[in-house]
Design goal:
mainly alpha; two-stranded antiparallel sheet; 36 helices; 60% helix; 1% strand
Length: 672
């Protein structure tokens, strides 16, 4: 449908040509499609606005009603038969779903009482409105230079929608809930430096001001003036004004602003620290390595990983004095400091991947601390070395007494001349009485990612120890080869529910629609196990088959909120405009997880007003609503900020281009 309705009608000849070629490869008759499209356009009501070359029908609403959320920019959605409930206990060979009608959505599930899952579209919830039609003469694909050549302008349009939420987002950094703070940090990262730099500086100013008041109660004026100047520069740079004016006032690399973010590393707030590290990573200034290294050795694993990646990235991108910076990293560990700091330094050095770094890693293979040896093995395995050299360096590690070193060596040498010995060690680890040995080899099996590793992983999923089962489950998620997935499917009817869930989730991640019938058959037994049913529903959506829409939509009315949320995610994954009216029903769901999931989904289908739903959740006094709202906000920003992702959401592209703000920004860029 996307190829037919969007790309085949794109004004850019190259896009249109590729769409024709793709449809031809899929066995479609291009002439018949074009004739059908012309007939549809002729039947549409005449309204201003276009998406490419296609007319947009105005949303239909009776007097006093708000028009349906989003509408369908490609004409009326044909009625789809109501989905039928599963026939539990049906006879062998019969389809999993019969012909009995679907019940109407109940208020308890967040739907509208008396409205069927398919058919007439519901009115939008408060705060949402239909996507406005683009004024006549608005920009088209050809005017903007291609399907996503105007990505920067669309991102600025989206930023205007997100900007009012940013102050509310940063009010949450005072929360004492570490999980909420992690989500705020993630959302800030996805919203990007351009939108959040000023807010970060303001939050840090407030923190430092409060700290100084508590320390001495005075002497703040000079300090606050310095920070205010930095905030002023950041605001000018990131306010969306003319780039020439912002450049004249300074940019993020000017010494004052750079120093402010270096200073922010001292913050006691994890959100501020996390994002200061991220921004310094973007700037890649060697002068930031030393203050970054001071953060190593903390008990904050999340921050530790970011610092390691940032430091190694800066060193890799530094064309001069790499060895000098490397020495600075090595000198940062002093005898008597925490072992964890040394582990992190080994990890950071290994990511640099220079000959000098390899020399240090080779020495660390003989270190007294097992974790140092294990990290060295892992980093050497990632280096671009001849196979014989890897076997020479890492082969002896297959005799190491430590579980981490053994497991990393097995994964590193599995695809080498030492595979037989690695396999032998793997089988020994599986039989070991020590749970940590079994847990480590479970991790390694996921790294190997071959069909041969599936049977031992299945056995580890049934291990009596939860740490072993957790690692086995995580490794199962990394099985992406077709052969591994095919072997995994053999266990789809395993006695263990956890095993079945892992298999179902991986079928969905693989996206191999040949297993669609397998998922349908599973639904009969899954009805009694909500966790399993939720996994099956989501995997059905990940098959991306429109024929699964009736089945999935039936579960929008389930009592279990995870099943309802996964139903929304599944419909979104199918990426068919016809599911909009179904997802709209979940915008008013009683559970914030479902509401946030639905808001994120309709945003990607071009409903810009979904931002208001998320804003209400972020500004709520409920920590649960805040958490789900922040998560959705980050995902919505990421769907626009990343060019490749945005290209997969054509309705969102169309909606952003229809915004009056798009035309204003485009005119500035074009100079008229």
């Amino acid at each position: 449908p996307i190829l037919k309705d969007i790309y085949l009608h794109d004004p850019n000849p190259a896009v249109k040509f590729l769409a024709k070629k793709a449809l031809t490869n899929l066995g479609e008759d291009i002439s018949a499609i074009q004739e059908e499209g012309q007939a549809r356009v002729a039947e549409l009501p005449q309204t201003p606005g276009t998406v490419g070359a296609q007319s947009i029908p105005a949303p239909i609403a009776s007097a006093g009603q708000v028009s349906p959320l989003g509408g369908d920019p490609f004409g009326p959605t044909p009625a789809v038969p109501a989905p039928a409930p599963p026939e539990v206990g049906g006879s062998s060979g019969e389809p999993a779903f019969g012909a009995s009608p679907s019940p109407a959505l109940s208020p308890a599930a967040g739907g509208v009482s008396g409205e069927p899952a398919f058919g007439g579209e519901p009115s939008p919830p408060p705060g949402l409105s239909a996507v406005p039609a683009q004024p006549a003469g608005g920009p088209t694909g050809s005017q903007s230079g291609g399907i996503l050549m105007d990505h920067d302008i669309m991102w600025k349009v989206a930023m205007d929608e997100f900007r009012p939420i940013v102050p509310s987002l940063f009010r949450l950094i005072s929360s004492e809930d570490p999980k909420l703070l992690d989500k705020v940090s993630d959302a800030t990262e996805k919203l990007g430096t351009v939108l959040c730099a000023a807010a970060l500086l303001e939050a840090y100013e407030r923190e430092q001001s409060q700290a100084r008041k508590e320390d001495d109660g005075g002497g703040l004026e000079a300090f606050l003036q310095d920070v205010s100047d930095l905030i002023h520069i950041a605001r000018l740079k990131h306010s969306g004004i003319n780039p020439a004016t912002a450049a004249a006032m300074g940019n993020l690399t000017c010494p004052e602003v750079l120093e402010a973010f270096i200073d922010m590393l001292r913050s006691n707030n994890t959100v501020l620290q996390d994002n200061a590290v991220r921004i310094l990573s973007e700037l890649s200034d060697p002068n930031t390595v030393e203050p970054l290294l001071r953060l190593l050795g903390s008990d904050n694993m999340r921050l530790e990983r970011k610092v390691i990646k940032t430091v190694s990235k800066i060193v890799r991108e530094t064309k001069t004095d790499q060895d000098l910076v490397l020495k600075s990293i090595l000198d940062h560990f002093k005898p008597g400091e925490s072992d964890f700091k040394l582990f992190s330094i080994v990890d950071a050095v290994g990511r640099i991947k220079t000959p000098q770094a390899l020399k240090h890693l080779t020495d660390w293979l003989k270190h007294d601390l097992p974790r140092v040896r294990a990290n060295a093995v892992e980093r050497i395995a990632e280096m671009d070395l001849p196979e014989s050299e890897k076997v020479r360096l890492l082969g002896p590690c297959l005799n190491d007494p430590n579980n981490r070193v053994l497991a990393n060596a097995v994964a590193a040498l599995w695809h080498s001349a030492a595979q037989d010995r690695a396999r032998e060690v793997m089988l020994q680890c599986l039989r070991d009485d020590d749970k940590w040995v079994r847990a480590s080899i479970a991790f390694a099996l996921g790294e190997i990612n071959e069909a041969e590793t599936v049977p031992p992983l299945i056995s580890l999923l049934k291990d009596p120890d939860p740490a072993v089962r957790r690692n086995a489950s995580n490794s199962t998620r990394r099985l992406v080869s077709k052969q591994a997935v095919a072997k995994l499917v053999e266990y789809v009817n395993d006695d263990s529910v956890d095993v079945r869930i892992c298999v179902v989730e991986q079928i969905g991640r693989s996206g191999i629609d040949a297993y669609n019938d397998v998922l349908h058959l599973l639904m009969i037994d899954a009805e009694a196990v909500p966790r399993l049913l939720a996994a099956v529903v989501l995997s059905l959506g990940q098959m991306k088959l429109p024929e699964n829409i009736p089945t999935i939509s039936y579960y929008l009315n389930e009592d279990d909120e995870l099943i309802r949320a996964n139903s929304v995610l599944a419909l979104e994954a199918i990426n068919d405009p016809k599911v909009m009216s179904l997802i709209n029903l979940s915008i008013t769901d009683s559970h914030p997880m479902v509401r946030a999931t639905a808001a994120k989904a309709v945003w990607r289908f071009g409903e810009i007003g979904a931002v208001n739903v998320v804003r209400e959740m972020v500004e709520s006094e409920s920590p649960e609503q805040q958490s789900h709202g922040v998560f959705a906000l980050g995902d919505m920003a990421e769907s626009v900020r990343e060019k490749r992702k945005l290209a997969t959401f054509p309705l969102l592209v169309a909606a952003l281009r229809r915004s009056p703000r798009f035309e204003q920004l485009r005119s500035r860029v074009s100079g008229f």
